[in-house]
Amino acid sequence: MLVLKFFYPSLQNHGERFVFIAEWYDPNASLFRRYELLFYPGDGSVEMHDVKNHRTFLKRTKYEDLHLEDLFIGNKVNVFSRQLVLLDYGDQYTARQLGSRKEKTLALIKPDAVSKAGEIIEIISKAGFTLTKLKMMTLSRKEATDFHIDHQSRPFLNELIQFITSGPVIAMEILRDDAICEWKRLLGPANSGLARTDAPGSIRALFGTDGIRNAAHGPDSFACAARVRCF
């Protein structure tokens, strides 16, 4: 908290606010709802607006269970019993003030590399990531499709889904600055053969076989990561 006060000396200004784009999964309607979440650090109050309908969803209300240190991209926060995933900054001011803070993303060790999980996790740790959650599971076809939503138009999608659901995987929530970009860099190129040439120290170069059996995967966006309900 002392560090936050040092870098953000104006946080006691009651007029200051930070804005995030957040998403909530509505189980009754089986769909994701997107909100603009406003946080006022001066008095700890929150406000929410429905992005699609351009309506106020929650008027500015003091809420003691949300704190500035909770607000970083990829994190999940509870606001009046609704779990929201923070997807993006809502304005340039928030991005400038808080943009250097930590982010969370989802990482997946594929069936072909589960036996090498210990070595892969050690590489992840040495790269400066903090492992905050870990779970071994077998993905359903829907979960696998959600996780690879960025590949929907790719011709190899069916082969990819078939492989990723063929055995257990290890899902991890990892934390560090610029988490998505740094995780993609640590993964290396999707084709393991190319990775061995262009990024020989990457996870796919070390543990992958080809473009499908390439050891690990990560979403290209926080929105994609939020749609995979592993934890």
TrEMBL record:
Limits of the DM10 domain: 14-102
Protein location: Cytoplasm, Cytoskeleton, Flagellum axoneme
Alphabetical UniProt keywords: Cell projection, Cilium, Cytoplasm, Cytoskeleton, Flagellum, Hydrolase
GO MF term list: hydrolase activity; nucleoside diphosphate kinase activity
Entries under InterPro entries matching the protein: DM10_dom, DM10_NDK7, NDK-like_dom, NDK-like_dom_sf, Nucleoside_diP_kinase
SMART domains, per the entry: DM10, NDK
Record-level GO BP terms: CTP biosynthetic process; GTP biosynthetic process; UTP biosynthetic process
GO CC annotation: axonemal microtubule; centrosome
Entry similarity comment: Belongs to the NDK family.
Protein name as it appears in the record: DM10 domain-containing protein
